[in-house]
Amino acid sequence: MPKQDYFDRSYYQRYYHSKTTRVTDDSEHGRLADFVCSYVKYLEQPVKRVLDLGCGVGYWRDAVEHAFPKAAYQGVEHSRYLCDTYGWQEGSVVDYRGRGRYDLVICQDVIQYLPDADVGKAIRNIARLCRGLVFLQITTAGDWRHTCDQSLSDENIQRRTGDWYRRRLKRHFKNLGGGLFLPKDSSLMIYELQQL
């Protein structure tokens, strides 16, 4: 992962705050969060505790509070700048310990920054922290070539194939599509064809 000071004020100004250079906005992110929270509700996963690993500027917090008003939200961030600015807990997806397990773990656009050796550790850690559902978004090499707007996206990522990630994820999770994953030790009942 890039050094902590890589994710400083100028990084977030460039990729999140500037209307001309940001990679996403509130409305785009809101649609994604609405979809994820609706799918979690559809699957009847009770949500009392939410962990957002790599919470960034906090796009998920409002959506989670709206969808699950009684849930406790914990934002964890590698960037000291964001921790100081937003009050997040400082930590890494690779080794964050937390207290107990969470009903929904969110990890959006974080894992592609990790070196190969840390990806497996991060996936195992997410599986350990989650008792419910996980939302993962990881930019792959194919995404970089075909989906990302390269003029707006941070090129300082590891460009691995989707299959590379799938092999590591399937050791711990069932893929439910749409970026949602279910830990293999979960008792949540899922129809066979809801799994990929």
Question: Can you walk me through this structure?
Answer:
The chain has 196 residues and is α/β, with parallel strands linked by helices. The protein has seven helices and seven strands, in the order ααβαβαββαβααββ. α3 (59-67) links the parallel β1 (49-53) and β2. α2 runs parallel beside α3 (59-67). The longest helix has 17 residues, at 26-42. The chain is globular.
Task: Label this structure with key terms.
single chain; about 200 residues; alpha/beta; seven-stranded mixed β-sheet; 7 helices; 7 strands; about 35% helix; about 20% strand
| Structural category | alpha/beta
Distance between the termini: 29 Å
Helix content: 25-40%
Q: What does the main sheet amount to?
A: 7 strands, mixed
Q: Characterize the overall form.
A: globular
What do the pLDDT scores average to? 89
* β-strand number: 7
**Radius of gyration computed on alpha carbons:** 16 Å
Strand proportion: 15-25%
The sequence of SSEs as H and E is HHEHEHEEHEHHEE
Strand order of the largest sheet: 3-2-1-4-5-7-6
How is the secondary structure organized here?
Blueprint lengths: L8 H9 L8 H17 L6 E5 L5 H9 L4 E6 L2 H7 L2 E2 L11 E7 L7 H14 E8 L3 H6 L15 H8 L3 E5 L2 E4 L13
Parallel strand pairs: 1-2, 1-4, 2-3, 4-5
Antiparallel strand pairs: 5-7, 6-7
In short:
By secondary structure, the protein is an alpha/beta fold. It contains 7 helices and 7 strands, in the order ααβαβαββαβααββ. It has a 7-stranded mixed sheet with strand order 3-2-1-4-5-7-6.
